[in-house]
Amino acid sequence: MASVSEMYDVTWEEMRDKLRKWREDNHRNSEQIVDVGEELINEHASKLGDDIWIIYEQVMIAALDCSRDDLAWTCLQELKRQFPGSQRVKRLAGMRLEALEKYEDANKQYDSILQDDPTNTAARKRKISILKAQGKSAEAIRELNEYLEQFVGDQEAWHELSELYINEHDYGKAAFCLEELMMTNPHNHLYCEQYAEVKYTQGGLENLELSRKYFAQALKLNNRNMRALFGLYMSASHIAASPKVNATVKKANVKYATWATNQINRAYQLAGRGTKENKCSVKAVEEMLESITMS
Amino acid sequence: MSIKLTTQAYCKMLLHAAKYPHCAVNGLLVAEKQKEKKKDSHSTPILCVDCIPLFHGTLALAPMLEVALTLIDTWCKENKYVIAGYYQANERTKDFRPNQFAEKVGARIAENFSEAAMIMVDSTRFTMGCYEPILTIYDHHENKWKCRDCNADCFEDWCEAQKITSALLEGRSYESLIDFDNHLDDLRNDWTNPEINKSVLHLC
Q1: Where are the domains of chain B?
Q2: CA-to-CA distance for A174 and A231, rounded, in angstroms?
Q3: Repeat TPR: residue ranges (chain A) (predicted)?
Q4: Which of A266, A268, B12, B39 is packed most tightly, with the most Cβ within 10 A?
């Protein structure tokens, strides 16, 4: 089988840089990481210098995702040898046990980390992940709430909690989590847009109006967020169609929905040069426009 | 009353699940619109000819699902299709029962198409070789979802489906599969997946 460097005509430096980019962006493209990382480790280990340790960690986690226990074990041994007694490596050993579904042993591993260092957030989060993997959502939610009382600034945790709540259809609490995230990240258009989606799903006129405002806010922060644009259209047209609103509100929302439809239309024109699928989407959008102007 | 799947429909469903093994995924199944209702049409199985992968990750939010249903509905009308089913693969491998969300979407589809089916993917039996069908099919009976065993009879041609799905999985075709989420990230991404359709045809 051809090597990655042969197939894609890349140098080992480019492979190393790609791995760094995936690390920084937190991509979970595990198969690619394993392909690139394994070759880098096997062929170019000596050239990587100190980078090799973080690459071992990255490749190990990706290997667990791909059921490559052989590769994960190799990486783990190298890291154990270089960093004996490290909590970070202990956590990786725990993750390997998780991948093998040996949850009791994994928990023991994490408990031992927490005995030495009760503030070790990584170990606590892994324990919560185990609950999630076992389908114990209620317990995971409880533990995560307790964790956040102590570590109130952990954004990853707030986001995870919002997802857990969404899966339990507890949209009110999910919204609360996203509000925390929006407060600390006012320029993040994704949090705004997700909050709007949750509010929309909750339903009811007040929530729809809130959702429309936050879709609009997301668009202000990033005018190319298609979800926000579609969301603005959907929420505004639902509000306009509601029997509970007065004529002024209805008129305003028809205006918002029309504006959104035109923007959507424009976006599709820019994207597709008359491909068949795009023609259908454009047609659907035109129908959407007709439906609001008629009501 | 029962639905059958073509190779293309089954293939794309499994490729979608394979592309995001760590996420829940869902999507729609479409069938060709029947010309007129024959007297004993319940004996002719509905053939699901294609599959539209929708989302991965957090499934249970309404707005984008509504957008997808609207756009796909228009596309169906253009192509004389009808939305005939919904599939879902849960985030946890061992969790292959339909949840509240799946039932809701299924019911919504059943409003427009009485013989709609809900399909759950059983990831515990998902292998590269695809030696057995890994779906559980649910039919809508009197507001309840009734489980039906899925075997080779549920496919237009199981041998072909098995062979081609396995080949595409080996070839990592799932890397180029586009779902509606990918489309929303970049409108140029085509959720009808013409390239994968071509690959399926090519292997037939």
Answers
A1: 3-35+42-203
A2: 18
A3: 155-188
A4: B12
Distance set, CA A87 to CA A50, A60, A110, A114 (Å): 19, 16, 9, 9
Decide: helix, strand or coil at residue A242: coil
Point out the residue among A31, A276, A284 whose CB comes nearest to the CB of B70.
A284
- Evaluate whether A122 touches A91 at the Cβ level (below 8 Å): yes
* Residue A275, pLDDT score: 57
**Inter-chain contact A281–B58, Cβ cutoff 8 Å?**
no
Inter-chain residue contact A135 with B191, CB threshold 8 Å: no
Closest-approach residue (CA) in chain A for B180: A227
* C-alpha B96, offset from chain centre: 15
User: CATH number of the domain at B3-35+42-203, please?
Assistant: 3.40.140.10
Would you say the C-alpha torsion B151, B156, B160, B162 has a positive or negative sign?
A: negative
Helix (H, G, I), strand (E, B) or coil at B117: strand
At a CB cut-off of 8 Å and minimum separation 6, what does B36 contact?
A: none
For the segment A160-207, what is each residue's pLDDT rounded down to a tens digit? Answer: 999 999 999 999 999 999 999 999 999 999 999 999 999 999 999 999
What average pLDDT does the segment A4-31 reach? 89
> B187–A235: do the CB atoms touch at under 8 Å?
no
CA distance A292 to A294: 5
